[in-house]
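Example record for the data management plan.
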Amino acid sequence: MAIFGAGIAAGTINTVVGSGTLITFPVLLAFGYAPVTANVSNTIGLVPGSVSGAVGYRRELRGQRNRVLTLAVFSTLGGIAGAVALLALPASAFKRIVPAFIAIALVMILAQPYLARALRARRRRDRGGIGAGTNAGVMATGVYGGYFGAAQGIMLLAILGLTVDESLQRINAVKVVLAGLVNLVAGVIFVIAAHIAWGAAGLIAAGSILGGVIGARHGRRLPPVALRAVIVAVGVIAIVRLV
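Corresponding structural encoding:
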């Protein structure tokens, strides 16, 4: 029930802003799963939630087909590279690297309100478009997402918000698709080459589907301060457990 509930929370959070991994990953660690096993199982489990979230955002995705297809190429390449890196590097490297990644993710979550204001100000004075910098940034977040993934959505929102002349909700819809695609391609690689805790992945998948629906329909009503506080708390717990 705890893993299923974490899947619901993660699916909701990923749809609204991103960083749901900081809910599910610590829960899997608490149940005794090895860090790499917890990470790959979590990645696979969150894919269905991204699908349900994207379906919920289908209205905001209208008219963005070419943009999504272009960015999807770079997200896919990044996700493949990140997943391969996770499997190629020793498990001890993951345990050393991930606490730093989580810390960066927590800083980004705390800075999210300031990023949002900066993005709004930038859009008012600059009507940018997708270019090489955007593609490179999306690919870099794909590498990060394929390797670990916490706060991948926030990174994507920051990159797209600075370069795409759209409302934040339409940008968020693109983010949901791209982050889900990274999880999908990484998950395919993990199914082929990694050990997966299928029971845990299934519970997270079931919960994330429900969470994706909740996030698309009602997630915007969640108090941002409370949401960030919960994410930061579980992120700190994950760092302590890994260290």
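Summary line stored alongside the record: The chain has a mean pLDDT of 85.
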